[in-house]
Design brief:
With about 700 residues, the chain is α+β, with helices and mostly antiparallel strands. The protein has 22 helices and 26 strands. It comes from Paenibacillus faecis.
Amino acid sequence: MKTLVLAEKPSVGRELARVLGSREKHKSHFEGPKYVVTWALGHLVGLAEPEDYDGKFGTWSLEDLPILPGKMKLKVLRESSHQYKAVQQLLRRQDIGELIVATDAAREGELLARWIMDMAKWNKPFKRLWISSQTDKAIKEGFASLKPGSQFDRLYQSARCRAEADWMIGLNVTRALTCKFGSPLSAGRVQTPTLGMIMQREREIMSFRSEGYQVVRADFGSFEAVWRGNGGDSRIFEPGRAEQLQRKLEGRGGTIVKLTKSEKQVPHPQAYDLTELQRDANRLLGFSAKQTSNVLQRLYEQHKLVTYPRTDSRYLTSDMVETLKERLTSVAVGPYASLARPLLRKPLQPGKRVVDDSKVTDHHAIIPTEQTVLLNTLSTEERKLYDLIVRRFISLFYPPARFDNVAVVIDVDGEKLHAKGVTVKDSGWKAVYDGQAVADGEDEDDEDREEEGGSASLPELKEGEKLTVKRCRLQSGRTQPPKRYTEAALLTQMEKHGLGTPATRADIIEKLVSSDTIERQGPSLHPTGKGKQLIELAPADLRSPELTAKWEAELERIARGQGKPEPFLNGIREMAQTLVKGVKNSEATYKPHNVSNSHCPDCGTRLLEKKSKRGLMLVCPSEDCGYRRSGEKRLSNRRCPQCHKKMELKEGKAGMYVQCLPCGITETLNKDAKHVNKREQQKLVKQYAKQESLGSNLGELLKAALEKKGE
């Protein structure tokens, strides 16, 4: 009997087949003497659509909602049905006695495998391959220590509950909003509270009123100090107060009344989990969360240089300690050689900040594998992201950075001036970054640092020393509103509120962008006109992150065996009913924010402007129409009689017309005009060229064709 191995993707299937010696290649699988290796294409089976339960649900209607099947059905996904049939045939082969699930070692990977098994009615034994990297060594060790499939039943139940909850909430609320307000409005269990956080920040920015202030800076010759009030704030808001202080302090003598020295130790940052890596890649490299996920997947799957990406742990397990030197050896090349090699000469003793079995659930932190890296085989994106991971890994074995902090308080005529200084005693792990920006453990929003004297080096000073203010200057500023979320900041908030998982957060952000509810403007995320209205139309319970965080926590409890699926799903059903009822009873209105001046030539409805990868598109909002065309400016050959520039070609209810916006001149195009452009003329010449060879007069045929075209 043979064993069937089910991978998640063809690329992984090929690697498993190579390592397992299954060299006989077929269209949908590889076969060897012991193993048959096949693959899914992501999900091959999904939850059935409403119309699969009852044909009437194919038409969206408010009266039919909520749609809450007693038992959720599965269906084969049409776009990958060919691969499902191939996998099904292999599962039913008489010589296949066992199945090994080798999909991604995570909640979603477990779900897609179980749904395939369920749909194909697999009832023979199965085992689970659970590995954290794709190297040959990891694959061989994984197959040598396969786990019983039943060990992951709880993980499957958690994944099933998540999928069914998203179906019941997302589908019902989206249909309710769309039917109620006559426009495609999408809502969901995670995406709506995420949008809610962006809108809350937008309201804070809009309601913010900026105030001017001044900071008094005193120059003592060898260093500067900043005046601070009794509350510790250096900003002065009262008009004239700063000038008054400037006159009081200028040229006056003072005394150091307090001088404190302290050593500060900053431990190395922890290893990366996916969310932390996405944050750093966004802040330091400008990558979107989705871009980071895609590049990281290539480093894991294609190059085999990093461990499993979709992890939520920042720790390693104790059984990995003996592999750390091998991993350091593999990265000790190029710019990392001088950083890693000194570590290889002595025993590695990682502390609790690096190794902690109790802090690792399904997967440990993202670190390099034992695979030797060839840096020139990586793309620019891959190289940059790999650099972040390698430097973070090497820094785990360096000592803390040590600084001497000096804080000085100077009394000048009863006023207190403050200065801070920092002396680096040992750069420690910061040497690994060689002056590069380091995200973790440092305050990226410390706006007061410059105002309060920053971290300049101070001369040797002592308490009681007399000083003179050489010059006093005023520095003006204005209070700033809260910053709009970057993807890095939004990921932090999603993690803090328990919205989504490391594996799903990037997709949630992309879904909000693709549904035109938020947009990227430089590094910041802005709500669109649609998003601003949608968050007001969505049910109040769905806008708050607290409810979704509670659900995510319950899903985690189910995965750990501490919670049960049915009570959770019953709660979701009740919530779906409440949310739909709230939408039905709503008295709010919705006005599309992106209505253009163009009309649909088929049904006359005003077209909506939508951004796409191909640029601006004009789309008919009518459900039974589907008309769409490019919304980019189209220039005609007709020139403006006033400025002589080419006029813009537009389409309205009465047909095509041309317009010069700067001059305000509009001309209709004559429908009866017998004008044919050169391309059409050439087509007609080719079309009738054959007939000329048979004795016909080409000129007459072409003339007739042109006349017919102009009719």
